[in-house]
Amino acid sequence: MARKKTVAQNLSPEQVGVKTLKPSELTPNPHHPRVLFDKTAMATLKKSIAKVGILVPLTIYFDSKRKTYIILDGQRRWICAKDLELPEVPVNQVKEPTLVQKIVSMFQNAKPREDWDLMPWALKLEILMDELGEHNDKKLATLTGLDQAVVQRCKKLLSYSKKYQDMMLDPDPTERIKADFFIELYAVRNDRFVSSLDWFTKDRFTKQMLKRYKEKRLKAVTDFRKVKQAITQARLAGKDKTISKRLREFAENMELDIAHLEISSAAISAEAKAMTKQATKLWDFLNKIETDSYVGEDERWELLERLRQIIRTRLLEAGRRIK
């Protein structure tokens, strides 16, 4: 009895065979999101091919509609072959894949790296999600071979409207907005409290933050983490109205920096809660230990003595009665 194919096997194009073709007979993969290649790496590959030829065949399929061979894997080798004017290249032909197979193959053959623009990959992931009806991060990561964190970053980019996505796809690298800007902004822009504010709209706020970014009013895109922190601390201190007012002012006035969002009482409240949590852990530990087991740990006892002294000093400064 024949075994049933696994999902991975069903998504892998069926092999046809190895042969050679002229570089002019091949066409780049329209689903490949990467259009820019590192010049240094390309020069190294070209030098290697000129010396020993193409050792790993390109993976291709014949497109029945376009009547041409499409490259599934090996676009860099193909570019080098054309530059070197090689008469033919070795290819491994597979049967024409489905759209899902094309996308999965693209991900598995050319995983995105940190220095690659992520938006094109996000758009391909969107096609895959729509075709399969699959949105689970873990399953998508397994299917594409991407890290789960990369899948989540792609999804964040897909939450932006097309006009912002287009900014990440600008062919001019000097005009292109890095995906990191939108990924870091996401935590503030999608914060439930921020989204509930009567003056807030995602599109307008994104536009305002873009202006701040382009005018270099941010030290780094990670500054949005400080914005998120200031919002969280203010809310913990019950300063919802204050942080709403200051966040609006920060969005509308480019002269204000992130320090404008910092509410001293909120920061103190957050620090106090952190201190209470740490002090409670220490109290629980000291309350449970068997003293005899630690009697020889002089360094620990000396530290506790210093701790007792600083606690007494701070209690007196705060006007607390020492019992």
Describe this structure in words.
This protein is α/β, with parallel strands linked by helices and 323 residues long. The chain has 15 helices and five strands. The protein has three domains: 97 residues, Conserved hypothetical protein from pyrococcus furiosus pfu- 392566-001, ParB domain; 97 residues, no CATH class; 34 residues. Helices cover 55% and strands 8% of the residues. Helix 5 packs across helix 7, helix 9 packs parallel to helix 12 and helix 12 crosses helix 14.
In short:
The chain has 323 residues and is of the alpha/beta class. Helix content is 55%, strand content 8%. The chain has helices at 7-10, 39-52, 75-83, 99-109, 119-132, 137-144, 148-158, 162-168, 179-189, 192-196, 202-214, 223-236, 240-252, 264-288, 298-317; strands spanning 15-21, 26-27, 58-63, 68-73, 89-94.
Mean pLDDT: 86
Helix content: 55-70%
Beta percentage is: 5-15%
For the largest beta-sheet, the strand count, sense and barrel status come to: 5 strands, mixed
CATH topology of the largest domain: Conserved hypothetical protein from pyrococcus furiosus pfu- 392566-001, ParB domain
Termini gap: 83 Å
Tell me the overall shape.
Answer: elongated
> Oligomeric form of this entry?
single chain
CATH class of the largest domain: Alpha Beta
| Derived structural class | alpha/beta
Unreliable parts: 1-9
Specify the CATH architecture of the largest domain.
Alpha-Beta Complex
**What value does the Rg take, in angstroms?**
29 Å
Total strand segments: 5
Strand order of the largest sheet: 1-5-3-4-2
Report the order of strands and helices: HEEHEEHEHHHHHHHHHHHH
| Secondary structure tally, helices | 15
According to CATH, the homologous superfamily of the largest domain is: Conserved hypothetical protein from pyrococcus furiosus pfu- 392566-001, ParB domain
- Tally of separate domains: 3
